Amino acid sequence: MNRINGNCGVKNEILMKYHEKTVTMAKAFDQTIFQHVPRALNEESDRFSQLATTYYDQLPNEVYIKLRDHPNYEEKMLVTVLEEPEDWRTPIARFIATRQLLDNKLDVKKTQSKSYKFHLYQGELYKKSVEGPSLLCVSVDNIPKVLIEVHNGWCGSYIGARYLALKIIRTGFFWPTSAKDAIMYVKTCNACRG
């Protein structure tokens, strides 16, 4: 707290970079107030801060972790879904990012009507959710990985197709054919059939 307010110096090289980033971000606002929250009053954040030293097998099944390949203080160039191979997300992401529409008038209407349900965040397309946090839109290439992980990976318990489709959404993922893909995946699962 004292470091942010300038009352105390920052000596650690890594903390200096976080400090600089915080001060730079604070300048973008007309007014900022930093308030210290004791660990006892901030249990959820404290638990998340301890994940780095937790073994994966000790985590609850519902915890989904995205590993970062760079520290938070580094500026990350946003890589949008537009640079990936084109799939179902591309027209929506392109429209949200650039308001650029396709030539086909039927596709234009579909894309415009769909786009209000989605948003871009740090180069990733998310679907807005009424039930909770936004859902990460999964590329066609990653659909099999998500199906395997939710069905019989960390989150899995060899569940039926209907519940698998619901669990995909509860785990934080979305793609338009998830229910149909869940049915097909369960039909081909040897552990479910035998």
UniProtKB/TrEMBL annotation:
Gene Ontology molecular function: nucleic acid binding
Signal sequence residues: none
InterPro entries: RNaseH_sf
UniProt cross-references to Gene3D superfamilies, sorted A to Z: 1.10.340.70, Ribonuclease H-like superfamily/Ribonuclease H
Protein name per UniProt: Integrase zinc-binding domain-containing protein
Native species: Lithospermum erythrorhizon (Purple gromwell)
Lineage of the organism: Eukaryota, Viridiplantae, Streptophyta, Embryophyta, Tracheophyta
